[in-house]
Amino acid sequence: MPPEAPAATADEARSGFQLPGLLSRWETLIVGLIVVVFIIGASLSDEFLTTATITTGTFDMIEVALMALPLALVVVAAEIDLSIASVLGLSSAVMAALWNAGLPLELIMPLCLVMGALCGAFNGILVTRFGLTSLAVTIGTLALFRGLAFVVIGDESVTDFPSEWTDRAFGTIADGWIPNVLVLFVALAIGFALLLHATPFGRNVFAIGANVEASRFSGMRVKRIKLTLFALSGTVAALAGIVISLRNSTAAANVGTGFELTTVAAVVLGGVSIFGGKGTIGGVVLALILLAGIQKALTLAEGVSSYWIQIVTGILLIGSVLGPNLVSRAREARAHTSRSRGSWPSPGVGLSNRPRKEEAE
């Protein structure tokens, strides 16, 4: 019998599919795309490779970047949360309503985070306790939470937040070019990376995404882990709602509309398999840089419509799903061909010791 193909290593399981040669990891391919985008962006505008562009590009993507971190864990567990942008909007609306009611921001912000955790837990309960698919559940709560946001504050907006908080959200470190919110993102990225890649909890998340039934039979508390992931997703989405409200000095029910598409694109483009069990936080961070570079390059380019940002994002989302799938199919086809060739003797091999029919007679 032909030798069996070696089992996938833990590194392969975490990083997604691998390309031959130098592009041995999906992250390497993203780095190459980032270089290409930066070269093209610099050729389109002299302002592309400036500290001011980096600062504004960070501000443009910060809420999506924050929400992408916990969403990556949810997708690794073979689930999805499409309600994150609506939780962001609900958090902003609740923030506005509580500020109008006279509560201090020091109390409002923790309450918004608790609200976000409850929204995420609501999604998790419907998925884990009632056996509903996360896609259907979060499409429903996408509309539900956004509707609740308009019920809370209506079409109004609040713009009179204290300047010490808005300055922090829109300010930079030591009046330089590094935004304060970037420090928040880096801290959360490190935390989620450690959680996913360096703890038993993270290993359980990978195992659940790879084979939920095997994980359940091995004694993992699958429902509790998934519920925790959805609660984390809701909490960070609420944090993003706080950040965008202070950064723009405006809290309203309609903020963040459509952010879920870009967030999902960043996660999937970062190498997180939509089927679960594969992905890295590092890949998601690289994908965020790539998307930010594309968005800024198209914004600075003269004569280019802003609608191209959505078009390119959609193309990248499709490509990031289609690419690994095609590579996986190619590998399976090669493995099948190798097994087929190895299971039959080559012509003339092994036949010399067999008696001929006439000799046997």
Which properties best describe this structure?
ABC transporter involved in vitamin B12 uptake, BtuC; about 350 residues; mainly alpha
Structure description:
By secondary structure, the chain is mainly α. The chain has a single domain (60-321), classed as ABC transporter involved in vitamin B12 uptake, BtuC. 70% of the residues lie in helices and 1% in strands. The chain is built from 15 helices and two strands. The chain has helices spanning 10-15, 26-44, 51-76, 84-100, 105-128, 134-153, 163-170, 180-197, 200-210, 212-217, 222-247, 259-269, 281-300, 307-342, 357-360; strands spanning 157-158, 251-252. Strands 1-2 form a two-stranded antiparallel sheet. The longest helix is centred in the C-terminal third of the chain and has 36 residues, at 307-342. The protein is globular, with a radius of gyration of 25 Å. The two termini are 31 Å apart.
